[in-house]
Structures are given as structure tokens and as C-alpha cells.
């Protein structure tokens, strides 16, 4: 995994230089996933962010995390982990509970962990533990409420907990809710005694709101699924409208209490799975998710909603995460494209973090945990090119022999060939799923896309690796998205280069913006920079093949010629030998380098320079 400095964010498979993270106050601009985050192997149920140290503490059902980049290193982290939000890597911090973690809270030096466990680092800790924030070592404090602690909140100098536990302490029972003094660790008198599970806690002023599966409080006082009690003793319940089903998530913004869960009404008024209260009464906010809500988070004046729903707030896209207006409930245009349930959300310091049981985000592989950050100015571009070496004229596309032989590397090969990308342009990994895809849009190889100055095309403004598909489309590493390149919208020459074909560039600058621009190098009417920059086969333009040494020229004889590269690849002595692999000398890209015989690579080089005068040279028409 690459280690990035603090101001270098790896977004959508690339690093973007940003002076700072932008405030997460609205979603008028793009939010992009950070693809450097290590991936838990199972569901994430809770997230707590230490913004001072740029660390996210996550808990859930997972037992390991895996690096998203080769060699895909895996580390063991049982049910809880600390993620460095700069690098995306897990920290050594490892409390090692022996079962699931459902809730996390923190102070300056301590992380509180709640769940279904009985031990922490081998020490007895039933359902609740306090661990050192630096080392992960369990502290001596051990109240042992028992499994399962499912919610936590820190307020008024106390740690409030909720769950399914029942224990006797301080001369009284505590059913499903309790509070501890943060200074002494002692149990406090706060004892609302709900009669069933508590899943969510939210302080507002001097009131603690509880959401869950309960229907009564202490003394049998009716308070179905939602309660509002004072923070001192947990008595003196405040007036509040009640939902008709389980509440699983709470948050607050603008003086309103937002709730999400499995209910369909609040105070007899239809509210599908999400609602807001103001002064205890139902508010007009009504995003109406079409299935259960499991997480809520305040994002400035907006509310992030996560769950198992498909749509909410009238969104036009399918995502289990949506951001909506905090007053109207209308969804924003931002489409995070989360394909599975979201059970935890956190928003801090310009980031929106999500955890759950998903596998893709914005069509990129993101397993169970993801972080979104505001995108800087960018353009979207989708070149379309054919490589003559693997072009199949009868099908008007290319063959994917290298992919079918499992020879295409999962990371770009150009850095190893000496190509210097602009900041972050090399980052990104083709996922196993994307590589396994078989269709007219399957992976052929990697290419380089360059944006060059409109007035001086010899000046490379930005460069980025791209994945070339059989149909000629150049896409991002997920095989589905256009390339997102971090430059200001404007006019640029666009060039495409390949490791054993001569590159080509647009003759004139092209206007690029955040809206995707398709540039078809294969069209007969396409005008390329220079003279005879592309070959023509039937009705399609193709890149000239034969640049086996990636030096921008095709030579059959003389110094640095490409024919010798083919001969050396097969051994340099016996020209009838062949070799299998991912080589620049494999000009026809069939996975086999051959110097003689049918479908050999040497003849293609000769044909590219004209096929008659072996001393001729063809030069790439990119300045």
C-alpha cells in the first residue's frame, strides 16, 4: 500500500492534491470514494471517528481486513479495528474481543467498546470494555453489564449505554439502559428501565432520547419504541410522538430529532421508516424510504440515511445510502451507488464514512466500509481506441487473449517501463470481478490517457492509467466508469498511449468538463495530430502496432529496433522458440511471443514501417 502524505488523498484510484478537506456542508459537488481503504471481510456495524488524529474506529462482524492493492495483504482484526484515514491502513491497535462489536464511543485517551463479547485481549469483559486509545490494551474498569451493549453516547460527563443486557449493580437492576460517570467509572442513578432492547441513543440539551424495541419505561410507563428522559435519573419523561415500530437510528440537526427504523407511522400519521420531531411533535420531513433505515447522520443542514431501502426522498438512482434535505426530505442528486445494506454512518472533517454489508460503491469494489471525500475540480473523459495488434476487423472490436490467459496485471505496467504519471495517475487496481467479466466490454489491457495543454501540446497537464475494453472504450479500473481526472474544466489535447503501439492525440483541443466526454479515435472522421498518426482498417482507425520497446518509434533494423526485442524475448538464439507471458514484444497480444511462423510478432513490425524498406521508421505523432 502506498503511504501518502497528509494532504494527498487517494480518490477513485488516484491521488489528488488538496490544500485541505472541504467542509461537508452540502452535496452540490461530487463526493468520491477513497479506494485506498482496507476492506473488512464482513459487516461493519458501527463507526466512531477521532478527527484530531484522523482515525476511524470500526466494529462489527468482521475478523480481518485486506489491502485493496496487490499483493492484497490481509491482517487479523477480530470485530474491531482502527483505520488511519490518511493511508487507509489498519493501525496496530488491536483490542481483540472474542465476539461481535455493536457500538463504539471515545474520549481523548479512551475507546469504549460495546458488543456481544465476553473477553477483550483474553481478559474478562462482558459486553462492555474501555481500552487505551494508543495501545488497545484493556483498562482495569470492568462493569460487566453482559452482552449485548448495542448503543453508546457520551454526554454530560457520562457514558450512556443501551442494549439487551440486564444486571444488578449499585443496589439496583439496570435493564437495557445504564450510565457511568466518566471520571470515576461508577454507575450513576440514571435508570429509565425500558422493558426491551435499546438500539440508539441521542442527547439533545438535557434530554437523552432512546430508540429501540421497548414499549414501556420504569414503572410500566407507556413509551413505545421511542423515549425522552432527563440525563440525571432517567425519569421525568418528556412529551414525544411515538412511532408504531422499532427505532434503530437517531440523530439531530437544526433542533430536530430524526429517527429511522422499521416503523410506518408516527403518532398515527404515515411515515415510512424515517421521520423527524420538533419539540416532540411530528415534523413535515418525510423522505419515505421504501425499507428499513439502520443509520442516520447529520451533514451540515442535510441528513444522510443508510439502510436496506432502494429509494428514499424521491431519488432517481438506486442506493442504500442517500443524502436528503434536512427540512423537506428531498434527495440530493449525489449518487453514492451503495449496493448493499448500510448500518453505520459518520460525517466529520469533510468525510462521509459508511459501513455495512455492501460490496460496491459507485461501481467500484468497496467491501463493507467506505469513505467519501469532496472531489476537487475534475473532468470526465472516455476515449475510444482500437489497437491494431489485437483488432478483429470482422467483429469491429479487439480480442482479449491476454485477459483470458490471466496475463493482464491488476495494476498498471507503465511505471515499470519508465513512464512518469502526474500525481496519483498510476493508482488503482482492476478487481477480480472486473477482470473476470466476459463480453464485448471485457478487459483487453492497460493504456495511458494524457491531457495536454491547449496551446502547447508538448506539455502534459495530467496523465492517468485507463483500462481498455474490447469495444475500444477506455474506462476506470471498475470497467464501468469514465476516467475522472483532477484538472479544472477547460480545453485540452487528449492523447492515448499503449505499451507496444504508437500513441495518438487529438489534432485540436477538446472542451472537457465534469460531464463525461467521449472521444472516438476509431471513427474514420477523427482528425489526429500529425501525419498518418493512425492506420485505417476497413471503417475503423487503429493505433499502429510494433513499438515493442515503448520508445515512440517502430524500427525493424538499426539501433534500438523492435525486431530484436522480439528475438531476445524468445531466447535470442533459436528464432523458432516461443515464450508465453505479458511482454511488450507480444505485438499481436495473443499471449505468445513468436519470431517466426504463423501469427508471429516480427512481421507486424515490418508491416507497420511499410513492409518493403526494412530501414524505414514510423514515428509516433505525439509531441
What does this molecule look like?
- The chain is mostly beta strands and 623 residues long.
- The protein has a domain at 377-623.
- The strands form 19 sheets. Strands 40, 41, 42, 44, 45 and 46 form a six-stranded antiparallel beta sheet that branches. A four-stranded antiparallel beta sheet has the order 3-36-33-32, with no helix packed on it. A four-stranded antiparallel beta sheet has the order 23-24-27-28, with no helix packed on it.
- β40 and β41 (460-469) form a beta hairpin.
- The longest helix is centred in the last third of the chain and has 8 residues, at 562-569.
- The protein is elongated.
- The two termini are 34 Å apart.
Largest sheet: 6 strands, antiparallel
What's the helical proportion of residues?
under 10%
* Low-pLDDT stretches: 1-26
Report strand %. 35-45%
Number of strands: 53
Oligomer: single chain
C-alpha end-to-end distance: 34 Å
Mean pLDDT: 93
Structural class: mainly beta
**What is the overall silhouette?**
elongated
List keywords for this structure.
four-stranded antiparallel sheet; 623 residues; disordered N terminus; six-stranded antiparallel sheet
Short description, anyone?
With 623 residues, the protein is mostly beta strands. The chain is built from four helices and 53 strands. The protein is 4% helix and 40% strand.
Amino acid at each position: 500500500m502506498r503511504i501518502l502524505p497528509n494532504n494527498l488523498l487517494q480518490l477513485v484510484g488516484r491521488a489528488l492534491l488538496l490544500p485541505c478537506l472541504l467542509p461537508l456542508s452540502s452535496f452540490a459537488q461530487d463526493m468520491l470514494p477513497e479506494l485506498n481503504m482496507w476492506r473488512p471481510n464482513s459487516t461493519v456495524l458501527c463507526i466512531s471517528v477521532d478527527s484530531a488524529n484522523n482515525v476511524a474506529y470500526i466494529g462489527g462482524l468482521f475478523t480481518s481486513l485486506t489491502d485493496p492493492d496487490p499483493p492484497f495483504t490481509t491482517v487479523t482484526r477480530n470485530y474491531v479495528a482502527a483505520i488511519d484515514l490518511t493511508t487507509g491502513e489498519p493501525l496496530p491497535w488491536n483490542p481483540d474481543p472474542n465476539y461481535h462489536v455493536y457500538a463504539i464511543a471515545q474520549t481523548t485517551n479512551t475507546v469504549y467498546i460495546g458488543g456481544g463479547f465476553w473477553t477483550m485481549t483474553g481478559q474478562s469483559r462482558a459486553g462492555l470494555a474501555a481500552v487505551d486509545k494508543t495501545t488497545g490494551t484493556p483498562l482495569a474498569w470492568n462493569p460487566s453489564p453482559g452482552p449485548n451493549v448495542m448503543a453508546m453516547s457520551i454526554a454530560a460527563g457520562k457514558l450512556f449505554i443501551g442494549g439487551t443486557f440486564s444486571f444488578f449493580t449499585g443496589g439496583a437492576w439496570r435493564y437495557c439502559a445504564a450510565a457511568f460517570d466518566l471520571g470515576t467509572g461508577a454507575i450513576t442513578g440514571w435508570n429509565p428501565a425500558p422493558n426491551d432492547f435499546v438500539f440508539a441513543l441521542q442527547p439533545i440539551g438535557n434530554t437523552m432520547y432512546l430508540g429501540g424495541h421497548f414499549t414501556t419505561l420504569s414503572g410500566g410507563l407507556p413509551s413505545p419504541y421511542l423515549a425522552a428522559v432527563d440525563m440525571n435519573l432517567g425519569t421525568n419523561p418528556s412529551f414525544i410522538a411515538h412511532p408504531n415500530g422499532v427505532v434503530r437510528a437517531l440523530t439531530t440537526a437544526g433542533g430536530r430529532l430524526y429517527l429511522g427504523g422499521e416503523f410506518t407511522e408516527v403518532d398515527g400519521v404515515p411515515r415510512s421508516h424515517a421521520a423527524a420531531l420538533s419539540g416532540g411533535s411530528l415534523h413535515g420531513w418525510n423522505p419515505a424510504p421504501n425499507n428499513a433505515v439502520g443509520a442516520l447522520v447529520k451533514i451540515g443542514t442535510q441528513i444522510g440515511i443508510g439502510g436496506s431501502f432502494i429509494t428514499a426522498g424521491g431519488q432517481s438512482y438506486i442506493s442504500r445510502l442517500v443524502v436528503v434535505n434536512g427540512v423537506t426530505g428531498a434527495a440530493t442528486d449525489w449518487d453514492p451507488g451503495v449496493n448493499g445494506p448500510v448500518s453505520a454512518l459518520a460525517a466529520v472533517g469533510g468525510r462521509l464514512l459508511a459501513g455495512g454489508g455492501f460490496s460496491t460503491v459507485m461501481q467500484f469494489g468497496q467491501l463493507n466500509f467506505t469513505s467519501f471525500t469532496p472531489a476537487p475540480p475534475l473532468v470526465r473523459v472516455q476515449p475510444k481506441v482500437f489497437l491494431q495488434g489485437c483488432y478483429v476487423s470482422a467483429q469491429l472490436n479487439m480480442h482479449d487473449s491476454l485477459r483470458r490467459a490471466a496475463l493482464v496485471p491488476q495494476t498498471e505496467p507503465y511505471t515499470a517501463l519508465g513512464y512518469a504519471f502526474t500525481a496519483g495517475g498510476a493508482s488503482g487496481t482492476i478487481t477480480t470481478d472486473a477482470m473476470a467479466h466476459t463480453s464485448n466490454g471485457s478487459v483487453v489491457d492497460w493504456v495511458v490517457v494524457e491531457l495536454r495543454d491547449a496551446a502547447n501540446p508538448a506539455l502534459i497537464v495530467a496523465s492517468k492509467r485507463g483500462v481498455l475494453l474490447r469495444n475500444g472504450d477506455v474506462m476506470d479500473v471498475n470497467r464501468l466508469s469514465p476516467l475522472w481526472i483532477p484538472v479544472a474544466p477547460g480545453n485540452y489535447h487528449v492523447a492515448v498511449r499503449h505499451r507496444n503501439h504508437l500513441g495518438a492525440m487529438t489534432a485540436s483541443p477538446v472542451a472537457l468538463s465534469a460531464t463525461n466526454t467521449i472521444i472516438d479515435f476509431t471513427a474514420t472522421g477523427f482528425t489526429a495530430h500529425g501525419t498518418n498518426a493512425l492506420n485505417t482498417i476497413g471503417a475503423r482507425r487503429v493505433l499502429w502496432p510494433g513499438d515493442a520497446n515503448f520508445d515512440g518509434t517502430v524500427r525493424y533494423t538499426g539501433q534500438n529496433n523492435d525486431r530484436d526485442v522480439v528475438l531476445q524475448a524468445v531466447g535470442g538464439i533459436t528464432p523458432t522458440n516461443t515464450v508465453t507471458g505479458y511482454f511488450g514484444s507480444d505485438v499481436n497480444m495473443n499471449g505468445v511471443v513468436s519470431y517466426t511462423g504463423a501469427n508471429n510478432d516480427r512481421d507486424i513490425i515490418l508491416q507497420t514501417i511499410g513492409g518493403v524498406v526494412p530501414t524505414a521508421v514510423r514515428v509516433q505523432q505525439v509531441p
